[in-house]
Amino acid sequence: MSEAPPIVLCIPGGWESRTALAQALAGAGDTVGLSGDMLNNGVAAARLEYMGHDPDLRELFARAGRLFSETDLAAIATHRSVIYLIGEGGALPAARNMMALAGAVLQAGGLAVKVETSGVAHRAQDWLEHAARRETHIGALLIAYVALIGGCEEVYSCGMHMLGLPDAVVSGGLPPQQAGQWLKDFLLYVLHEQPALHTGQMFGVAGEPDHFTLSHEPCRRFAPDDLFFNPFGVWRLTPHAAKRSPDA
């Protein structure tokens, strides 16, 4: 792959102008600063696009985030401007850097974060909590960046490309809650251990009877020019034949 996949973050706020945003950042007590169209904290930088009020933003955040209250959504609806942070992804250090940059914007008056490269959204306080743990708890990156989507037939992840890893899908008609838990367990295992996986390998959790066969495949769910596209591919977890009922 010649180019790292991007991370794109949407942050609404009450800034009346780009100048007001720069002043708020300078007064937030952080090391972050805005120079031209670049946001920089001395360690990492991201391109910043400043835009005006978006009347559709309340509904977009409501659909993308599970924890937003009506009060949260009402605040988002009154935003005066929206900024988009666009930075390089494709690796854990890059993802951590973008979490820190977005956190600085939240501390300067940002209201929430929507990850445009996976579709998941977070309240400001939740993103800041995840960002504070980004160096010590790998699961904070999974929660911040990755969406789990699906229903009765399969459950799949979206967003692992920002961390430099394939996404995954659990197929086989398992109950959605069970499939979602297996998917989360698998993604956490991959993030923690960075194992050398291969097609045909078995995956299971110690002490659990269920296990899956892995197969690696290209990302076909999204087009290559889609922000959700994962150039690292997808791991498919298929329930192993041994766990099926003898009468099936």
The major beta sheet can be summarized as: 7 strands, antiparallel
Secondary structure: number of strands: 13
> Which stretches are poorly predicted, pLDDT < 50 over at least 5 residues?
242-248
H-E order: EHEEEHHEHEEHHEEEHEEE
Which class best fits the helix and strand makeup? alpha+beta
CATH topology of the largest domain: the name is TATA-Binding Protein
Q: How many structural domains can be distinguished in the coordinates? A: 2
Q: Span between N and C termini? A: 42 Å
Radius of gyration, whole Å: 19 Å
- Report the β-strand fraction as a percent range: 25-35%
Q: Number of DSSP helices?
A: 7
Please provide a written account of the structure.
This protein has two domains: 137 residues, TATA-Binding Protein, CATH 3.30.310; 97 residues, no CATH class. Helix content is 31%, strand content 27%. It contains seven helices and 13 strands. The strands form two sheets. Strands 2-3-4-5-1-6-7 form a seven-stranded antiparallel β-sheet, sandwiched between helices. It has a six-stranded mixed β-sheet with strand order 8-9-10-13-12-11. The C terminus is likely disordered.
Short characterization:
The protein has helices spanning 18-26, 57-64, 70-77, 92-107, 124-132, 138-145, 176-193; strands at residues 6-13, 33-35, 38-40, 45-52, 81-88, 112-115, 121-123, 147-150, 154-158, 167-171, 202-204, 211-217, 234-239. By secondary structure, the chain is an alpha+beta fold. It folds into two domains: 6-142, TATA-Binding Protein (2-Layer Sandwich), CATH 3.30.310; 147-243, no CATH class.
